[in-house]
UniProtKB/TrEMBL annotation:
Protein name per UniProt: Lipoxygenase
Keywords for the protein's UniProt record, in alphabetical order: Dioxygenase, Fatty acid biosynthesis, Fatty acid metabolism, Iron, Lipid biosynthesis, Lipid metabolism, Metal-binding, Oxidoreductase, Oxylipin biosynthesis
Superkingdom of this protein's organism: Eukaryota
Domain Lipoxygenase, residue spans: 8-716
Enzyme Commission no: 1.13.11.-
GO biological process entries: fatty acid biosynthetic process; lipid oxidation; oxylipin biosynthetic process
Family stated for the protein in its record: Belongs to the lipoxygenase family.
InterPro entries for the chain: LipOase, LipOase_C, LipOase_C_sf, LipOase_CS, LipOase_plant, Lipoxygenase_dom_3
EC supergroup of this enzyme: oxidoreductase
Chain's role: Plant lipoxygenase may be involved in a number of diverse aspects of plant physiology including growth and development, pest resistance, and senescence or responses to wounding.
GO MF annotation list: metal ion binding; oxidoreductase activity, acting on single donors with incorporation of molecular oxygen, incorporation of two atoms of oxygen
Gene3D superfamilies for the chain: 3.10.450.60, Lipoxygenase-1, Domain 2 (4.10.375.10), Lipoxygenase-1, Domain 3 (4.10.372.10), Lipoxygenase-1, Domain 5 (1.20.245.10)
Annotated organism of origin: Ceratopteris richardii
Pathway of action: Lipid metabolism; oxylipin biosynthesis
Amino acid sequence: MYMCSDKAYLPSQTPEGLAKYRDMELKVLQGDGEGERKWVDRIYDYDVYNDLGAPDHGPEYARTTLGGSKEFPYPRRCRTGRKRNESDKFTEKPVSIPELIYVPRDEIFDHIKTQNFAADSIKAISHLISRTVEYISKGKDQFNTMEEVYSLYVNSSDSESHSMRSDDNHLKRKLTSGIFSLLANGKKTGNPSLLKFPLPLIVQKNKDAWSTDAEFARQTIAGMHPFTIQRVKVFPLESKLDPKVYGPPPSSINSHHIEPYLEGMTVSEALKENRLYVLDYHDAFLPYIQKINALTDRKAYASRSMFLLTKEGTLTPVAIELSLPKGTGREDRVFVPPGNTSEKHQQSLWKLAKIHAILNDTAVHQTYSHFVRTHSSIEPIIIASHRQLSAMHPLMVLLLPHFKDTLNINALARKVLLNAEVKNILRGGIIEYTFSSGRYSLELSSILYKDWRFDEQGLPGDLLKRGMAVRDANAKYGLRLLIEDYPYAVDGLEVWDSIETWVTDFIRIFYIRDEDVIQDKELRTWWKEIREKGHGDKKDEPGWPSMDRIEDLVLVVTTIIWLASAHHAAVNFGQYPFAGFMPYRPTVGRKLIPTPNSPEYESFLKDPDAFLLSSISSPAQTIVGLSIIEVLSTHASNEEYLGQRSDTQWTNNPQVMRAFEKFQEKLFKIGQHIEQRNNDPLLKNRYGEVQVPYTLLLPTSKGGITNMGIPNSTSI
C-alpha cells in the first residue's frame, strides 16, 4: 500500500482511521533484513560499503570494506542483499550492468531524468571513444604542448555556443541511433560539440590567468572547493601523526620562508591579525604516500599550502610544503613564490609545487567534500526517513524533495565511479583511473570521515570549526567572517539563513512546545536510527544534537536541507567550469618534482613546460575525467530548484503555503544580492583575473552547464 495525503499529522494527531495504516506502511518499507532485494521492492535497509571490489576477478581487485570498523568508518548505504563473492564471503558481487543495481522502487529516476542522464552519458562515451582511440592510435601517453591540450576543446569562436550549453535536444533526438551512429553523425555534420569538449569558463576570457598565484589562492574561497581552507592559529603548523613513524610534529615551513611575503609583518603579528590561512592535507595523505607512489605511473606528496590575507582583502600564497615518508620520519621540501624576475626554471618549480598541492585538493574535493559530505552522508538519512517517518509526518512532507534521485545516483556511482578498476574503465573504476590516489581513493575519504561531526556539517558550524568566522552578536547571522570577501561564505550564509527561517516557520506550525518534540515517537526513532545505524561508526562521538528542543530539530533539518541542496551545488556544479581545463586542476600526478643534480632535473631544465605536462594526467586520463565532470556539472532539463515544488498538491495548509512563499521571496532577493556583489569592483575575490564571477549559489538556473543553480537534492 501507499500512504499519501496532502495533510500532515504528528503521530499523536493521526485520525483514528488512519493510525494502523500509518504503522503498516512503515513496516512494509522496513522489510525484514533478509534476502536479495528485487526491483519491485520498496524496502529501505542498511549495509556497509562492501561492494566496491571484485575479488573474484583476482586479489588485485579486492577493496577494503568501508564502514563497520574503527579503522575505516563510513556512513551506511542502502542494502541490496546481493550474492557474495566466492573468494570473500563478506563482500557483495558486483552487478554486470548499472541498471541491475537495486534501489527502492520509489527512488528510481523518472523518465525525464532517465532521458537527460542517458543523453549526457552517451555524449560522455562519444568523447571517450573518439578522442581516446585517437590518442592511443598515435601512441601518445602525454601531452607535449599546451596546443595539444587546447585541441580537446571546441575552438574559441564556437565556445559561446557550446561551452555553456543548455539543453542538447539534438543529442536527445539521437538517443535511439546508438553511439557509433552518433559519432558518425558528429563527423559528417561537423558538429564539434559531439566530439570535442566545450571550452571551460576558466579559460574563456583569459587563457593565462588560471596559472597565476592570485587565482590559485582565490579558488580556495571562490572556486569549486572552498570548504577546507582554515585559519592558522599556531605556527609552525603541527602534525597529529605518530612521531615515531612520521617524524617530528612541527612543519618545515618556518618564519624565514614566509616573512618576506607578509607585507612587513612578523609571523606573530600576522597570526594576531588573523592574516594566515592554510590548506593542510599533510596528515590525511602522508600515511598513504608510500602506497600511492608504488602504483604504476602515480606519484604524490602530502601537502600544506599557506596563504596571506593581504591588505587588499585578497589571498596570496606564501609557501607550499610537500612531504614524503622516509624511513622512520619524512622528507619535506618547502617552496616559496619565486617572484616575477626569477629564472624560468624557478617559476616552473613553483608551478609544479602548486600542481602537487592541487592534486591533493582535487582528491579531497571529489571523494570527501563531494561524495562523503553530501551523497554518502545523506543516504542513511534518506533510508531512516522512509523507515521511521510516515508519508504524512510533517518532516517527511518537508524533506521529501531534498531526497529526490539521491539513492539512484549513489547506486550508479558505486558501480561506475567508486568501484575497483577492473580490466577497463567502461566497466567502472573511474575514480581509481583518474586520480593519483588510485585504489586508495575511497580509503582516504574514510580517513577524513573520522573527523566528521554532525554539528559541523551546517555552514555556521563548518566556518567556526575552520576558524574562518567567530561568533559576534552584532554581526549579521551572529557570525563575523575573518575574510570579509569570502564569496562562498557570504552567499552561503544568506542561503543558510533563508533555509533556517523556512524550516523554523514550518516546524513551529506543527510543534508548539519542546514537549511536542520529545513526545513525537516517529521523530525520536528516526533520529536514533540516523545516529546508531546510518552513521553508526560515529554514534558515540560528540556533535549529535539531543533532539529535546524545537531548536535542535530546526538545526538538524536545516543541516540536512543545506547539505542536500546548497553544499552539493557549491561542490558539484562548478566542476567543469573550473576543473574542465586539465592543466589547471589535474587529477593525476605521474612524476615527483626533480631534485638538483639528478637526471630528471636535467630533463626538466631542457624543457620545463614539456616536463610539467608529462608530470600530470595523460590524454586518456584527461578525456575520461573531463567526460565525467561534464556530465556531473550538467543540470537536468526538469531540475527542481530550492524554493520549487513540482507537486502542486504537496500541501493544503495555508500557513505552510504562506511560509513557503516567504521562502521563495527570500531566495529571489538572494539572487539579486549575489548579482549586486558580483558587480561590485571593491569585492576582488568575486571575479578574479580569470573573470569568472562566483555564481554557484545563485538559487535557480536553466538546464545544462551553467555554473549556478541550487537543486533541491543531491541528484547528480
